[in-house]
Amino acid sequence: MKLSDCHNIDDFRRLARRRLPWPVFDYIDGAADDEITRARNTAAFDTVDLVPDVLAGVAAIDPSLTIMGRRSELPLILSPTALQRVFHWQGERAIARAAAKFGLWCGISSLATVSIEEIAALTQGPKLFQLYVHKDQGLNRSLIARCQAAKFDALALTVDTIVSGKRERCARSGFTSPPRFTAASALSYAVKPRWALDYVLREKFRLPNLDDHVDAGTGEPVSIANYFNTMLDTTMDWATAERIRADWGGTFVLKGVMSAGDARRAVAMGADAIMISNHGGRQLDGSRAPFDALREIVDAVGGEIEIICDGGIRRGTHVLKALCAGASCASGGRLYLYALAAAGQPGVERAIALLKDEIERGMKLMGAKTLADLTADRLRYR
After folding, report:
1. Which residue is catalytic, options 88, 134, 279, 318?
2. I want to staple 330 with a disulfide (CB 3.0 to 4.6 A). Which of 52, 137, 266, 319 is the partner?
3. Distance CA 255, CA 20 (A)
4. Is 318 one of the annotated active-site residues of the chain?
5. Residue 123's closest CA among 360, 354, 345?
6. Which CATH superfamily is domain 3-381 in?
7. pLDDT tens across 343-378, in order?
8. pTM check: above 0.90
């Protein structure tokens, strides 16, 4: 199987599985507990049907929008994800360049493997930084200040990682950041020599946004669960969020909102956007899918705040369904991580191009000339 054989996101997943050591693949692919919520995130889109209008004259369509104050050529954001240079040596550089090529927002994690400053230099496109609130207040202030200096367009406070979800695949494999070669996993790394050579011979793995403050995860191997459970601030509350919003002073997003009540509080505190997200099913297993929560949240705060439906996106029609249900935009991480792991920047670009084609074709088949035509009456709930 090669890159040209990938015609959808599931194809990229299969190719990534062939090319990655199993502990690394399972870190991308896995989720919490029984992984029920991870499966729901995509399956939720199957609970509704699209209703097309015909004879609409769709020779020219426009899938662009303005989201969080910046133009995007598609209603799709590349969500922030951690540790990308573990999956492919190009890491966040590939994502930033691909996003810029297609005119999309890209998100950068606190646990990114490329620095805030380098990403800012790579692209003039819209950029979002995802903030984990650490116990080290100096680190929190440093991350915000660096994003301000680098002129990032938005800051997203992740609110669903007070503690780590129980990621059993990682517990079984012993996956750490940086990867630690154990007796149990040695064979998996050995039989993927291309990955192993890239990891060993290219630039040393690090988490440059953290390495002036912490060793764990950047120089000292640690599981993500241990990192979250020891480094992150469990006292974070709404007052913390308001303080971070004030310190940041720019476009502010809450990532991880899953209830109408929390959405109303986000509006009240002056957030510019919310990301309806369950962290890819990696935190609270048994929680709802973002798409399932979308309509209730839209009914509560629609029109008062921008709403991004984050997670489970595998098809362009999933994006269209999210917009019909009232989302301002959709976003996802695995949809490009599989492609990154499979083939680096060319893989990410092919994945985005396929989704772009699906969105545009879907709009034409729906009789939608612009995203404003994707209204609630274009959906039927089963």
Report:
1. 279
2. 319
3. 29
4. no
5. 345
6. Aldolase class I (3.20.20.70)
7. 999 999 999 999 999 999 999 999 999 999 999 999
8. yes
